[in-house]
Amino acid sequence: MCIRDRYQRRVRGLCTLLVKVAKMGAFMYMNELWKRKSSDVMKFIQRVRSWEFRHQHTIVRMRRPTRPEKARAVGYKTKPGYSIFRVRIRRGGRKRPAHRGITTGKPKTAGILGIKLNKNNRAVAEQRLGRKVGNARILNSYWVNQDSTFMWYEIVAVDPMHKTIRNDPRINWIVAPVHKNRETRGLTSAGRKHRGLRHKGHKASKLRPSVRAAWRRNNRMVFNRKR
Q1: Which residues contact 13 (CB under 8 A, 6 or more apart)?
Q2: At what angle do helices 40-54 and 26-35 cross, to 10 degrees?
Q3: DSSP single-letter state for residue 80
Q4: Cα 120-123-128 angle, rounded to 5 deg
Q5: Does 144 score more than 70 pLDDT?
Q6: Helix (H, G, I), strand (E, B), or coil: what is residue 93?
Q7: What digits encode the pLDDT tens for the residues 191-205?
Q8: How many angstroms separate the CA atoms of 157 and 141, rounded?
């Protein structure tokens, strides 16, 4: 390959890159910024925000999302019927409530401090908000900030009785009664993740429709009434 051909290839590649950058909207720039959380700008902003969040309540209703591009990606719309909340979760494992640290029984159940919760923190935040605002349906959530003690998540909630929601064909599926308390039954994105439903194929054969249903299917003997 001669020098002229190399130069032409580099020019074409540079033009393609410039076209891609020109097509990027504001939300794409914001998303790229959030992908670089270790940069000096994001470190400073997140440190200031965590200081502010620590002085607020555990559950706070917000006027607008902290991450507009992420909120829209998980289903949030700036229209009546949608609301967004920020929920604070304490980090760390889950200590076993044993009086004076005495656990009777086999050594397998002797643990106190090394116990982890199977549910992820995002699912816990959704469930806490669901108990707080029982008349709303939890749509989705995303991570916002964390420090050494807390983690903060913003959760999108939908009012199923609002006329705008009931008339919108893209969201009125959540109005059906079968979607009540969907966060407590592991039907949100965070719930499906800690249930293992992100996996497919033969390695996930004991996860569908659920772990308990799969165990019941494999350990139950069914006899016909007349055989």
Answers
A1: none
A2: 90
A3: T
A4: 125
A5: yes
A6: coil
A7: 999 999 999 988 888
A8: 9
pTM of the model: 0.83
59-88 burial, b at 16+ Cβ within 10 Å, e below that, comes to beeeeebbbebbbeebebbeeebbbbbbbb
pLDDT at residue number 172: 93
**Amino acid symbol at 149:** T
- Strands of the sheet with 59-62, listed across from one edge: 59-62, 82-90, 150-158, 137-146
150 and 162 Cβ atoms separated by less than 8 Å: no
Supply 204's token pair: 């996930």
Q: Which residue type, as a one-letter code, is found at position 160?
A: P
In eight-state DSSP terms, residue 116 is -
**Taking a C-beta distance cutoff of 8 angstroms, is the pair 65, 139 a contact?**
no
Quote the CA–CA distance of 194 and 188 in Å, as a whole number.
Answer: 10
Inter-residue contact 151 to 89 (CB < 8 Å): yes
Structure tokens at 72: 């829209």
